[in-house]
């Protein structure tokens, strides 16, 4: 039997000599424990795909935060077994808020030096793929599947009329461990047996060095990936119906893809950007915003990012380049600015959700929204494809109560004053 076919407890018992469960305030489906392997210690968070598809709800988020905090407190590396479908849609605003704080904790811990190793033996989608992209190294096998959007959603959105542009087998190969290891240096392909994983875990735990690549090398790799002909990145054009005047009427805007800049910035201490798309924002927009923020001088004390795009792109070209790594890199970039004293203000002026909202809300110093804005776990079109039967509407009151957003504003002028 392949290692990936074993249940979570069987996998953990093969990989570690001893497991000491860590007490959490909440009871969820994750396994959180101290793992001992010889003389080496780590903190383990294991996802069980057989329970709610390994999805992350409020209880699981509390467990994951407990694991991160324990690893930080004890100075131990964190090992995550990520077999997850991402954020649990059924928990609405509470699920959005739970993931916001989980991802914020992991961002802060990573920037403080926490070493993270992830194993994806089977499936890792949505927010789970963002957790993987925060890791120094991700171990995958040829059967692993990693993507921001699930395979059904990707296939449904990449059609020419009724004809799918890619068949199921080809899509599984693109999202698979072998392809991911060729696309990103973060992903390491191993044999689907306990020995393959044990060797890499031992190598990771045995060194105090960070086995991930440097920030500069990572950014260069992301940029090169957008221009690789074998990854077939499709540049997103500006939709003619987009009206940027509703964001801030006192300036003209220019930009490309889904990222826009005001032609006249407020002043030298404030930088303003807008992520606006008719439907989705792609990897190119994430990279362009990250590049612009990284280039800001230290004199900039405030960064304002307006959002009006319903979610991250489920396009095949976005997934070929590993969209989750672009979302995560952008979140790291903005969180670094926050930790250095720059106020990062994310303002939802239209629609928001998916990986875009998850990344930016976790990185931000403050998240605001207009009373007329809408924030969802996933956009309605995606939920229709998933045959979601529940009411996906999330009210402003629910978002505030859950702390998915911090406050509601009457108009954009209050933010710009």
List keywords for this structure.
22 strands; alpha/beta; globular; 417 residues
Describe the main β-sheet briefly. 7 strands, mixed
Poorly predicted parts: 237-241
Number of helices: 16
Number of strands: 22
Overall pLDDT confidence:
89
Beta-strand residue fraction: 15-25%
**Straight-line N-to-C gap:** 63 Å
Share of helical residues: 25-40%
Major sheet: arrangement of strands: 1-2-3-4-5-7-11
Structural class from helices and strands?
alpha/beta
Q: What Rg is obtained from the alpha carbons, in whole angstroms?
A: 21 Å
Shape: globular
Structure description:
The protein is of the alpha/beta class and 417 residues long. 38% of the residues lie in helices and 22% in strands. Strand 13 (259-262) and strand 14 form a beta hairpin. Helix 3 (92-111) packs across helix 13. Residues 237-241 have low confidence and may be disordered.
